[in-house]
Amino acid sequence: MFSPWQVRCGIADYTAHLVEALRALDDVQVSVVPFDRRPHPRSDYADWGRRMNTGDVAHIQHEYAFFGYLLPWRNHFRSFISQIRRPLVITKHVSFDGPLTLVGQGWLSFVRRAKWSMYNRWLGAYATYLNRDTFDVARQIIVLDTHLKDQLIVRGIRSEKINVIPPGVPRVPRAMGGERLRAEWGWSDKRIIGQFGFITPAKGHALALDVVAHLPDDHVLLVAGGLRREADRGALDAVRQRIARLNLEDRVRITGYLNAVDVPAHIHACDVLIYPYTHVDSSYSVMTGLAYQTVPVIISDVSAHRELAERRAGVELFRSGDPADLRRAIQSVLNDEERRAAMRRDTLRFAQEYSWQAIARKTREVYLRALQD
Questions:
Q1: What is the mean pLDDT of residues 82-111?
Q2: What architecture does CATH give domain 178-353?
Q3: In whole angstroms, how large is the CA radius of gyration of the chain?
Q4: For residues 308 and 343, is the Cβ–Cβ distance under 8 A?
Q5: Closest Cα partner for 89 from 366, 373, 372?
Q6: pLDDT for 114-164, tens place per residue?
Q7: Are the C-beta atoms of residues 325 and 211 closer than 8 Å to each other?
Q8: pLDDT class for 219, splitting at 50, 70, 90?
Q9: Which of 148, 297, 338, 346 sits at a 20 to 30 Å CA gap from 42?
Q10: For the structural domain made of 2-168+356-372, what CATH number should be given?
């Protein structure tokens, strides 16, 4: 299996849990070909491709950035797969297909939309390669939700080779220690809204700040995360500038990157978790938030999140990009104990149904289909 490994990355966390669950099955062994999320020459990708032949099945956890991103002279995916001789399975984590739902104004937003349109449509054959041929080379494809499958079908990939297998709900330590953090921050009597995950333009931090500014003063925001890559520093700077403009310095705390051992206490400190993403294909941060099963989770109604709600994951939806509706959702959940209890019950059932053990068994079925194809 090719994947980022032991680095700060949601897909690395996803893979670690998948590999652990696969290795727990009696008839599966997994060897990881690790990627460190750093630039590499084509020769390294060719070497990694040859190493994929040591198993009966080669499985790629795919994100465009793992292969040099999108520019044709930097994209090393072809060098990698040209060396693979085993039945190939690809898990598609990120899409550049369909509409871009990222909100925002200004020249940076214009540039993002222009680039998206180029790789989605304008570049013709190369756009087709990025959005279809990259994945159609596999005997079996795994996607994390139905809208990714629909995109591939529209591009012309046979539906029977596309398998929808959502991420599993990880096992997490007990959430405890939040009272100590609240006391340290001077927030013991506050209602803490938690926003976990890396800071990027699509995560909706500006929306969260606008909402906090219109909530009572005892509502505060914990931004539990930092930068994964230097290219997103502009997003962090914009968050800090917005905090100053809205006079929220005493009501917002940015932790920076949290080590795994620190997450349970920070979750425990929160009264509600929000994920106001304006564009996402799948987020392991949301699954991690659900895993604790103690703090209610509010998510935007982008397609990947709607599918979570349809699976009765115990989440509250709000209209993506709508601060008034996010404010409504926060107040509704915080002020309704019966609603929170019902959400916890649904999340408990969801965590049992979508455990990593169950996801590993579904993944093994895909491997068997790839071998039989």
A1: 80
A2: 3-Layer(aba) Sandwich (3.40)
A3: 21
A4: no
A5: 366
A6: 777 887 777 788 889 999 999 999 999 999 999 999 999 999 999 999 999
A7: no
A8: very high
A9: 148
A10: 3.40.50
For the chain, the three-class secondary structure string (H helix, E strand, C coil) is CEEECCCCCHHHHHHHHHHHHHHCCCCCCCCCEEECCCCCCHHHHHHHHHHHHHCCCEEEEECHHHHCCCCCCCCCHHHHHCCCCCCEEEEECCCCCCCCCCCCCCHHHHHHHHHHHHHHHHCCHHHHHHHHHHHHCCCEEEECCHHHHHHHHHHCCCHHHEEECCCCECCCCCCCCHHHHHHHHCCCCCEEEEEECCCCHHHCHHHHHHHHHCCCCCEEEEEECCCCCHHHHHHHHHHHHHHHHCCCCCCEEECCCCCHHHHHHHHHCCCEEEECCCCCCCCHHHHHHHHCCCCCEEEECCHHHHHHHHCCCCEEEECCCCHHHHHHHHHHHHCCHHHHHHHHHHHHHHHHHCEHHHHHHHHHHHHHHHHHC
* Residue 282, both tokens: 């799948």
Residue-wise pLDDT for 314-336, tens only, equals: 999 999 999 999 999 999 999 99
Residue entry with tokens 């940076």: 108
Are 278 and 302 contacting, i.e. CB atoms less than 8 angstroms apart? Answer: yes
Length of the chain: 373
Task: State in Å, rounded, how far the first CA of the chain is from the last one.
Answer: 19
Q: What is the pLDDT of residue 104?
A: 57
Please give the structure tokens belonging to residue 351: 């965590």
Residue type at 366?
Answer: V
Start and end residues for every CATH 3.40.50.2000 domain found in the chain: 178-353
In the chain, the largest separation of any two C-alpha atoms, in whole Å, equals 62
d(CA 302, CA 280): 7
Single-letter amino acid, residue 67: F
Tokens at 114, concatenated: 């222009």
Q: What pLDDT score was predicted for residue 18?
A: 98
Mean residue pLDDT of the chain comes to 93
